[in-house]
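From the pipeline queue, job 12 of 40. The input is one protein chain; the requested action is below.

Action: predict structure.
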Amino acid sequence: MLLPELKKIKMQLEEGKNNIDFDKEQLLAELNELDKIEELLQESVGLSKAVCPTCGRRL
């Protein structure tokens, strides 16, 4: 699910518009939110040290 400003830009690009209309401050805020999510996901994945005794895959 995209945040509102990113969704608006995506729709304009899909419609083939040449002049993309967006709120710079809102877009920056949304990109910062996405950046936080990525860091959180990487940290969460990195925390798990448990592995499957059969195949060695992380749990």
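Job complete. The mean pLDDT is 82.
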